[in-house]
């Protein structure tokens, strides 16, 4: 199973966080939810970056 999210999923986490945080009325739990979504987006971005870095460091003959 591939644990690397698609780039669309990562972008959608950031979009959802902005929409969720700006929905009226703003209350503390919406801010907390937006922070959790932003953290998920950052983690997904980091997974993408790490997987692309691994792919670029492998030689063509070593791909699975």
What does this protein structure show overall?
This protein is mainly α. The chain has a domain at 7-50. Helices cover 72% and strands 0% of the residues. It contains two helices and no strands. The chain has helices at 7-22, 28-57. Helix 1 (7-22) runs antiparallel to helix 2.
Topology:
Layout: H1 7-22, H2 28-57
Helix pairs in contact: 1-2
Gross geometry: elongated
Number of strands: 0
Q: Pick out the low-confidence regions.
A: none
SSE sequence, one letter per element: HH
Beta-strand residue fraction: under 5%
Measure the end-to-end span: 13 Å
* Average pLDDT taken over every residue: 81
**What does the largest sheet look like?**
none
Cα gyration radius (Å): 16 Å
Helical proportion, percent range:
over 70%
Q: What structural class do the secondary elements suggest? A: mainly alpha
- Provide a count of the helices: 2
Salient structural properties:
64 residues; mainly alpha; 2 helices
Summarize the structure.
The chain is mainly α and 64 residues long.
């Amino acid at each position: 199973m591939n644990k690397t999210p698609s780039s669309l999923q990562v972008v959608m986490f950031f979009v959802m966080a902005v929409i969720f945080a700006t929905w009226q009325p703003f209350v503390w739990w919406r801010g907390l939810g937006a922070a959790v979504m932003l953290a998920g987006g950052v983690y997904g971005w980091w997974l993408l970056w790490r997987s692309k870095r691994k792919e670029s460091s492998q030689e063509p003959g070593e791909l699975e």
